[in-house]
Amino acid sequence: MNMSSNRQWALVLGASSGFGAATVRELARTGFDILGVHLDTRATLPNAQALQEEVRALGREAAFFNTNAADEAKRRGVLEKIAGQLGEGGQVRVLLHSLAFGTLKAYSGAAKPEDEVAQKQMDMTLDVMANSLVYWAQDLVRRRMLRQGSRIFAMTSAGSTRVWPTYGPVSAAKAALESHIRQLAYELAPQGISVNAIRAGVTDTPALRKIPGNEQLLEGALGRNPSGRLTRPEDVAKAIALLSDERAYWITGNVIGVDGGEDIVG
Asked: Do 148 and 167 meet the contact criterion of CB atoms below 8 Å apart?
């Protein structure tokens, strides 16, 4: 269906759970139509389908694509479909990169070699959780879908600068992601496109639950957060919606903490 170009579209990578799903809901409430890319099995696909229905119940358009966002051919296939959805002159006003799929293994010192990260696993983690942002941004800018007034956000964490057992590959990806944010902000500023990383506090999401020792992470964050609770996906989604306002155009190149003050406490 060819939609008119005067709609406000948001494209969320990693749309079906965690920060991505919460942001889909909040942006839909704010008046955005939603393009979602997610990778779900038959068991979890109903979550993505229910989310689309939530968006439509709010009177917004929703088009979701169940595919690997880090695959070059599949990315370009999705972009062709998005071009048809937006129509001539259509713009993606908000791009959120919230892909959380990577390897959680030690670098060295494990009892068995297979418990240490391999090159393919390291490459995959950085490609999905960091480098894929660059490729999506490149293609969207080339197609003029991202232009004056567009916003790019990517989800990072305090783990980009801190150490946790088995978190090394993901930590490296988050550090690379923040570097990509700075470079994209610098290169896209002349086009009026802002680019920021969102550093969420420790949040009880499906991705965090996959980290070995996540119970200690949750307990530690709850104990030191001066706001007295953990960060919730909805907290982050509301901040992204706020930063998507046209008045936030001069905010770019930052790592913005959304954590209730958690990161300031040692």
From this structure: no
Residue 33 near residue 9 (C-beta atoms within 8 A): yes
Q: What is the pLDDT of residue 28?
A: 98
| Sign of the alpha-carbon dihedral angle for 118, 101, 139, 67 | positive
User: Domains along the chain?
Assistant: 9-259 (3.40.50.720)
- What pLDDT was estimated at residue 5? 53
Contact 198, 236 (CB under 8 A): yes
Q: Which of 133, 196, 157, 223 is nearest to 18 (CA)?
A: 157
0.85 exceeded by the pTM? yes
Give the Cα separation of 240 and 43 in Å (integer): 29
Helices 132-142 and 72-86: crossing angle in degrees, nearest 10, is: 40
pLDDT of residue 37: 97
How far apart (Å, rounded) are the C-alpha atoms in residues 28 and 20?
Answer: 12
Q: What contacts 97, CB < 8 A, 6 or more positions away? A: 13, 14, 132, 133, 136, 152, 153, 154, 155, 177
Q: Extract the tokens encoding 108.
A: 């060295």
Q: Which residues of the chain have pLDDT under 70?
A: 1-5
pLDDT at 4: 47
Cβ 136 vs Cβ 13: under 8 Å: yes
Q: How many CA atoms lie within 13 A of 249 on its CB side?
A: 12
Amino acid at 119: Q
